[in-house]
Design goal:
This protein is mainly α and 533 residues long. It contains 23 helices and no strands. Among the domains are: 150 residues, no CATH class; 95 residues, no CATH class.
């Protein structure tokens, strides 16, 4: 097989094609770059006035000199491309049809560039963005060429294209985010296509060998995709270190350290557990990993901020602030020492900030509130994917839906997963379904007590219906409940033992005190005042 590939590749330079399309496109693009770098205004030409009338009150010698300069350098570039193209094609493409398809695409774009310049020089769209269109065509032909060379399956073709796009997005956002990197920010649409070409070259280096090295390609692509998240992490680590009094390193230094750690971790993970190449495994990775990553990056790009806005309404704000103060100032553990409806659903972002940056009693703990809509978006994505069995539809819905305010907030959006857990309990009344529902109900009680209690009541009612439906199998179901109860009780005993090691005093007394002011975070202060009197 390798000998046939080498033989076919060696035949390409001897073919009669001369890459006129690519030469024409490069010549037009060179002329545009030269013309745009001068002080002459190309938009001074009128649409229907090509001739002496269009040159009224213009520097005609400079205009003519610019014309010959563009013609000269465009011709030089065209001749160079005609000489280099067969050599480049022999390394980049496997089949002659692929190289001719790319040449035809470039010829079409070059012709459109000339026509658009002559017809309407005020709008040089194809001259400005022609390189981007050629890169799109190059990516498509490159993926198709790899599929022909190595007999890729449909899943492998889709994953190659998806990884190329994700890698390009990752590198683009990491460079665009100028604050932690300390470089000048560039427009996203220009930067993406420039770096897209670099990613394609990287993929070509991975696939130039005698056999396809999927592990190397996926490792490199995922490493590039991970770069999109590292600028945010490097900035946050710098801010946390500054809060702790450590100012020796800059954000860019943290960024380089994160790059080394992330790339090394991805390389070790891919070396030990290379992903399967079948269609089912790819679809699961694509819809459960790649598309949610796009949701996270889109949210960070639009909502991330290093500061929080001052809230106008302070009454409801007192609930999470009291919970954070009681935890970090007085050492009262939520749910164990105090039980309120305002628990993890409103406290997890302030607690996360206080754990990382320290607590000083200010409103700085609200800086991580931008993470709450992220939970809502991820919940909406997974629910839509489960309902419609299509991850791309779920992603398009989240990005294009014009009324995102109708989606429930993170406080309540988590409860939608109870529908799927209860459905699992009804369809597959098994030990696994019972244990999952019990622990999900406990998590919901810790997240928000009212929706947790509702889930437990609904699960108990559905469990009773399942017992009535399968009454003739009562002995088997009795053993099933015994095993499930043992698993739950042992797990709870372990959790309670761990809490008792961390909490001073009697856990039972703390639980009774917590139940005494259930759902009364504001009234807790009143109870303390009455006791002191």
């Amino acid at each position: 097989m390798a000998a046939e590939v080498a033989k076919s590749a060696s035949m390409i330079p001897n073919q009669p094609f001369r890459a006129f399309g690519l030469a024409l496109f490069c010549a037009c693009s060179t002329a545009y770059l030269i013309a745009s770098s001068t002080s002459l205004e190309l938009q001074s030409f009128k649409n229907l006035q090509i001739g002496i009338a269009a040159a009224y009150m213009l520097d005609i010698p400079a205009r003519v000199g610019l014309f010959y300069q563009c013609l000269l350098w465009g011709g030089v570039v065209a001749l160079g491309v005609l000489w280099l193209a067969p050599k480049i094609y022999s390394r980049l493409f496997y089949s002659i049809d692929s190289s001719r398809a790319f040449d035809a695409t470039a010829f079409t774009l070059g012709t459109v560039q000339i026509l658009s310049f002559l017809a309407n020089p005020e709008y040089l769209f194809f001259l400005k963005y022609g390189w981007q269109l050629v890169l799109v065509a190059l990516a498509a032909i490159f993926v198709a060429d790899l599929a022909e060379r190595w007999k890729f399956t449909t899943a492998q073709i889709k994953e190659t294209a998806a990884l190329l796009v994700l890698a390009s997005i990752g590198v683009t956002l990491s460079v665009h985010w100028s604050l932690p990197l300390g470089i000048r920010s560039l427009p996203l649409h220009q930067l993406f296509w420039i770096l897209f070409a670099c990613i394609i070259i990287l993929a070509a280096l991975c696939f130039w060998r005698q056999k396809p090295c999927w592990r190397t390609f996926e490792t490199a692509a995922l490493s590039c995709a991970a770069l999109a998240l590292l600028p945010y992490l490097s900035l946050e680590i710098y801010l946390i270190a500054s809060k702790r009094g450590f100012h020796a390193l800059l954000p860019f230094t943290f960024f380089i350290m994160l790059v080394v750690i992330t790339w090394g971790g991805i390389a070790l993970l891919m070396r030990r557990n290379p992903p399967a190449g079948d269609a089912v495994s790819f679809r699961r990775r694509f819809e459960l990993l790649y598309l949610p990553a796009v949701v996270v990056l889109s949210h960070l790009l639009s909502d991330y901020a290093i500061t929080a806005k001052q809230p106008q309404e302070l009454f409801e704000l007192a609930n999470p602030m009291n919970g954070v103060m009681r935890l970090f100032r007085f050492g009262e553990i939520p749910i164990v020492d105090n039980l309120s409806s305002h628990v993890l659903s409103e406290l997890w972002t302030p607690i996360l900030y206080a754990l990382l940056n320290g607590y000083d009693g200010s409103l700085d703990v609200l800086a991580y509130n931008f993470l709450e809509p992220l939970v809502t978006n991820l919940c909406a994505y997974y629910v839509l994917r489960r309902l419609f069995n299509n991850g791309l539809f779920a992603l398009a819905f989240l990005l294009l839906f014009p009324y995102p305010a109708v989606i429930p907030q993170a406080h309540f959006s988590v409860a939608i997963f109870s529908v799927f857990f209860l459905d699992l309990l009804w369809r597959q009344y098994s030990q696994r379904a019972i244990v999952w529902n019990v622990f999900w109900g406990l998590f919901l009680c810790a997240w928000r007590a009212d929706i947790g209690a509702a889930h437990i009541l609904a699960a108990a009612f559905i469990g009773l219906l399942c017992l009535l439906r399968n009454f003739e199998l009562s002995r088997r179901f009795a053993m099933l409940h015994v095993r499930a109860a043992l698993i739950v009780m042992l797990s709870l005993a372990g959790i309670i033992s761990l809490v008792m090691l961390c909490v001073q005093g009697n856990l039972l007394d703390n639980l009774i005190m917590a139940l005494s002011y259930f759902d009364s975070a504001q009234g807790y202060g009143t109870l303390v005042l009455h006791r002191e009197k």
